[in-house]
């Protein structure tokens, strides 16, 4: 799964990305700082089962910080947008092509309205962020629409005989865009177009279909960024009232906290509601900056929002749950004795056999049964897994 970080230029996308991944990428208060996409690893935060079971774990592919499991997830920061990007303005279609593989999108918005529609810095409150949301969504729709329209006549002609072959044609055309067949079918159904031949779809039908397809295949959460500035809180309420998923956020604050924690100046886990100063090396200016973050962001909003946005994306939009595969059900470990070594994010509704395949195709092919370790219960191939399950797979074939 790959999540793209999108938005108007100069709103804090790279700051968000850097705060989530701790990678050093260019950040600047001017349009088009980012040109080429940055890909990095952020973390999904969840309560680890180690506390519940009272065991000391030592994960290999994720991190456990005193009962908080941080599971690696892939994020991508792309070039910013201005209105007209889909027809070449600004950096044009570049960002769009970089987004093909994305399964969900985090839309970073300058909620303080401190940048104009072209991303130029202006006094906070001078610009309406709702305008940005609308134009960015519109550019995404136009991008999808352009891809389809370039070949629409052929798709209509080849797929004319029945819905099945029309969907096949569409799927081929949209391959590489991380769009499933189910998404296509659902979008047609939701638009009430199931009984209408593609060749008789009006431009309005196409636009409606494209928007729905985009919503289904690349769901968006708004990261209401720069919440530390006035009048972001007012604008945040306005955005929320449109019904879009929207989370208040201060990427800059998160970046400061993450960097300070990396240098062991403070104790802070991404997503925490507070931090603790643990070094005497901080100067007055640094202390003041941290106090401001505590006052303006943490006390007011509960946390910086960056981790909450990532969690919402993977848990609610992509519908993933966490399961812990083990090889020894008694010691909860792998063959090397690492306790609760791995945490997998898998689709809600996945079965024990799906998990086996995800770990290794050999385990899936030789699947015999699995053990639900917490409940000390043998489960079959079709058993649907729950969030927080610890599972041992029993297979005729060994992993790898
Ligand atoms: N006050 C405040 N400023 C922020 C926040 N996040 C980012 N900024 C500032 O916004 C400016 C733009 O940040 P970037 O991360 O470079 O923005 P971008 O969206 O990646 O920009 P492009 O790559 O140019 O499209 C920088 O000056 C950041 O310091 C925030 O949460 N609060
Ligand atoms: Mg950038």
Key terms:
400 residues; alpha/beta; Rossmann fold; Ubiquitin-like (UB roll); 2 domains; seven-stranded mixed β-sheet; five-stranded mixed β-sheet; 14 helices; 14 strands; binds guanosine-5'-triphosphate; binds magnesium ion
Describe this structure in words.
This protein is an alpha/beta fold and 400 residues long. The longest helix has 21 residues, at 129-149. It folds into two domains: 1-37 and 78-318, P-loop containing nucleotide triphosphate hydrolases (Rossmann fold, 3-Layer(aba) Sandwich), CATH 3.40.50; 320-395, Roll (Ubiquitin-like (UB roll)), CATH 3.10.20. The chain has 14 helices and 14 strands. The chain is 37% helix and 19% strand. The mean pLDDT is 95. Residues 13-14, 33-34 line the site of magnesium ion (MG).
- Measured as a percent range, the helix fraction is 25-40%
At the fold tier of CATH, the topology name of the largest domain is Rossmann fold
Q: Given the C-alpha coordinates, what overall shape results?
A: flat
The value of Rg in angstroms is 23 Å
Number of helices: 14
Largest sheet: 7 strands, mixed
């Amino acid at each position: 799964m790959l999540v793209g970080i999108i938005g108007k230029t100069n709103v804090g996308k790279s700051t968000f990305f850097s705060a989530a991944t701790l990678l050093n990428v260019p950040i600047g208060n001017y349009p088009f700082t980012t040109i080429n996409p940055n890909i990095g690893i952020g973390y999904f935060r969840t309560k680890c089962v180690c506390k519940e079971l009272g065991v000391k774990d030592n994960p290999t592919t994720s991190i456990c910080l005193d009962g908080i499991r941080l599971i690696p997830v892939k994020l991508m920061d792309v070039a910013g947008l201005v209105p007209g990007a889909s027809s070449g303005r600004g950096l044009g279609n570049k960002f769009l092509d970089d987004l093909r593989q994305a399964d969900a999108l985090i839309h970073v918005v300058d909620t303080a309205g401190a940048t104009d529609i072209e991303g130029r810095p202006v006094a906070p409150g001078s610009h309406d962020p709702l305008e940005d949301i609308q134009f960015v969504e519109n550019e995404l729709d136009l991008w999808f629409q352009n891809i389809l329209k370039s070949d629409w006549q052929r798709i209509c002609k080849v797929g004319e005989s029945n819905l099945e072959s029309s969907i096949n044609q569409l799927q081929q055309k949209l391959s590489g865009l991380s769009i499933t067949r189910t998404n296509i079918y659902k979008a047609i159904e939701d638009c009430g177009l199931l009984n209408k031949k593609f060749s008789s779809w009006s431009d309005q039908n196409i636009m409606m279909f494209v928007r729905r397809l985009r919503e289904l295949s690349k769901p968006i959460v708004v990261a209401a960024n720069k919440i530390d500035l006035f009048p972001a809180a007012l604008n945040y309420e306005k955005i929320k009232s449109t019904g879009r998923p929207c989370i208040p956020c201060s990427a800059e604050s998160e970046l400061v906290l993450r960097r300070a924690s990396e240098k062991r100046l403070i104790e802070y886990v991404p997503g925490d509601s507070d931090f603790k100063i643990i070094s005497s090396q901080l100067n007055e200016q640094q202390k003041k900056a941290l106090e401001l973050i505590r006052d303006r962001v943490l006390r007011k909003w509960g946390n910086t929002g960056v981790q909450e946005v990532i969690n919402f994306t993977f848990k609610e939009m992509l519908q993933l749950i966490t399961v812990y595969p083990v090889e020894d059900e008694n010691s909860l470990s792998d063959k090397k004795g690492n306790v609760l070594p791995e945490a997998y994010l898998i689709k809600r509704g996945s079965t024990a056999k799906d998990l086996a395949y995800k770990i290794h195709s050999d385990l899936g092919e030789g699947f015999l049964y699995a053990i639900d370790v917490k409940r000390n219960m043998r489960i079959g191939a079709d058993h649907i897994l729950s969030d927080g399950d610890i599972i041992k797979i029993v297979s005729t074939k060994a992993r790898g």
